[in-house]
Write a structure and sequence with these properties.
By secondary structure, this protein is an alpha+beta fold. Helix content is 40%, strand content 11%. It contains five helices and five strands; from the N terminus they run βββααβααβα. The longest helix is centred in the C-terminal third of the chain and has 17 residues. The mean pLDDT is 77.
């Protein structure tokens, strides 16, 4: 344990860690961005704003609020990147932060559904295009 000259051993949070002792876990400072998730979102991942995300959007930093506003209409990460005019990596980071806070919800892309469901979705898309 480290010592201050003339005072004896230091204790509590003001002492220096012993060699080999792991650093203490510290909570993030107020106003800092939460830690990132470990995975990278696929370009085609669909995201939408949760009810809580919609209600709290005005309290968020500008970029986060903009993501929540745009994702009221479900869209893919790559579409969101284009709408924001930001690099894909930056957009992924924003989305991952909002997912971690449960202000956005991620949906599986259509390609991961069963073939019958994909066919149904494609039929509905074609019907909608025919009506245009």
């Amino acid at each position: 344990m480290s010592e201050f000259p003339g005072r004896g051993p230091a204790t509590g949070r003001h002492r220096l860690p012993d060699p080999g002792e792991p650093a203490p876990d510290r909570p993030p400072a107020p106003g800092t961005i939460p830690p990132r998730t470990a995975h990278q979102l696929a370009l085609e991942t669909l995201v939408s704003t949760t009810e809580q995300g919609y209600r709290l959007r005005r309290l968020l930093w500008d970029r986060y609020a903009r993501v929540c506003e745009l994702c009221v209409a479900t869209m893919s990460v790559v579409e969101l990147s284009a709408h924001l005019g930001l690099p894909l990596g930056t957009t992924r980071t924003l989305v991952e932060d909002l997912l971690a806070e449960r202000l956005l919800r991620a949906h599986q892309p259509v390609g991961t559904y069963a073939s019958e469901a994909r066919t149904e979705v494609l039929d509905r898309v074609l019907d909608g295009l025919d009506r245009l």
